[in-house]
Amino acid sequence: MLRTLTLMIAGLAMTLLAACQPPAQLLVEKAYVKLSPVEGSPSVLYFTIKGGPSDTVLRSITSPNILRLEMHETVEENGMSMMKPITAVAVPTRGKVAFEPGGKHVMVWGFDNASRKAGKAEFVFSFSNGEKISVDAALKEMKPEDGMAHH
């Protein structure tokens, strides 16, 4: 009798532990901007989205500090690398979507002086599930050697 009870308590403890796992949360991480060294040409925003408890879609990115933003994806067509605008990005449950060099990225035009002084800009990510996530992205100067060297 006692042995059965002990097993039941152990089973219950395991169930409770499993329930204590933090729920998957929709997150935007590692956001940073590579500032264009050329006035008037776009800077680029990179970041990683971690999927939450259900599928959603990144619908838009806005910023109070910026004139204009466009989501783009680098695609290969006929051996040529081209940039295509994208309007929405699917974020699978507990998945990971990276906006990184050579893939998806956000072109950014016209930072205001306040964000340049602060060295960061605020971006608001809007998802199809109604969530809005505000993230501060560090502004990093693009160095001429960035094209070749590793950090």
Description:
With 151 residues, this protein is α+β, with helices and mostly antiparallel strands. The protein is 16% helix and 50% strand. The chain has a single domain, classed as PCu(A)C copper chaperone (Immunoglobulin-like, Sandwich). The protein is built from two helices and ten strands; from the N terminus they run αββββββββαββ. Strands 1, 2, 3, 4, 5, 6, 7, 8, 9 and 10 form a ten-stranded mixed beta sheet that branches. Strand 1 and strand 2 form a beta hairpin. Mean pLDDT is 86; it is low at 147-151.
Write the SSE topology:
Layout: H1 2-19, E1 27-35, E2 43-50, E3 56-62, E4 66-77, E5 80-85, E6 89-91, E7 96-99, E8 104-111, H2 113-118, E9 120-127, E10 132-141
Parallel strand pairs: 1-10
Antiparallel strand pairs: 1-2, 2-7, 2-8, 3-6, 3-9, 4-5, 4-8, 9-10
Name a few traits of the molecule.
151 residues, alpha+beta, Immunoglobulin-like
Number of helices: 2
- What's the pLDDT, averaged over the residues? 86
Q: State the oligomer.
A: single chain
Largest sheet: 10 strands, mixed
Taken together, the total number of domains comes to 1
The name of the CATH topology is: Immunoglobulin-like
Determine and state the CATH class: Mainly Beta
Poorly predicted sequence stretches spanning 5 or more consecutive residues: 147-151
Strand runs, count = 10
> In what range is the share of β-strand residues?
over 45%
What is the overall shape? globular
Helix and strand element order: HEEEEEEEEHEE
CATH superfamily: PCu(A)C copper chaperone
| Helix-and-strand structural type | alpha+beta
